[in-house]
Specification:
mainly alpha; two-stranded antiparallel ribbon; Arp2/3 complex 21 kDa subunit ARPC3; about 200 residues; 2 strands
């Protein structure tokens, strides 16, 4: 099994910089990631109480390609924009904005997105994104980091309305098959992309 030895992530290899350009690279990638998160939140299937979106796929790609620090900063910037009141989340502004929205049933999943990106980024930095089996394990770890706070928060905020016994049906089952398909795309794509990058680099 791969160890946690630091290795370059995809963004390090696709766009190389010297020290004077590093801040610009990080800023551009951060802005691009926030825009991707914003757009993916609006591509949704309306389910109750949490909608199905493309964000799990986008967060996975950001984590694997950016690494833990830049991915964490990107998700933090996205969450900060939402907390400030910008309509960047699924269902905003129709279902509310800002901190009031974040304290609703989706709040745990929003925190989980940050954890998911950082966990996958850490494992990608360790080289887990170079092969299909290790990438699959990284994605599963990221999904657990997303679901655990999401389900706990959903149960705490909607427990009385939905019934605590329904945490799996409302917090996991609704999303699991869709998220699994998204992760299959990422698991297959990243080793192939690394191969192309490696050949181009050579």
């Amino acid at each position: 099994m791969a160890t946690l030895t630091a290795r370059p992530v995809l963004s390090d290899m696709v766009w190389t910089t010297d020290g004077s350009q590093l801040w610009l690279k990080r800023l551009v990638l951060l802005v691009a990631g926030v825009v991707a998160l914003w757009v993916s939140a609006k591509v949704q299937i309306a389910t109750v109480p949490v909608p199905v979106t493309l964000q799990v796929l986008v967060v996975s790609v950001i984590g694997a390609s950016y690494g833990p620090r830049l991915a964490g900063a990107t998700l933090a910037a996205y969450l900060a924009m939402g907390a400030y009141g910008m309509p960047v989340f699924a269902g905003t502004p129709e279902k509310g904005i800002g901190l009031a929205y974040m304290m609703g049933p989706t709040g745990g999943y929003l925190l989980g997105f940050w954890l998911q990106a950082v966990v996958i980024g850490m494992l990608a930095r360790a080289g887990w994104d170079r092969s299909v089996p290790m990438m699959a394990l990284a994605m599963v770890a990221g999904l657990l980091a997303l679901y655990i706070p999401g389900v706990i928060w959903l149960s705490a905020t909607w427990g009385a309305a939905l019934g605590w016994e329904n945490w799996y049906a409302y917090g996991v089952k609704t999303f699991l098959w869709v998220d699994a398909l998204k992760l299959v795309v990422a698991v297959i794509a990243f080793p192939a992309i690394w191969k192309l990058v490696g050949e181009a680099r050579g």
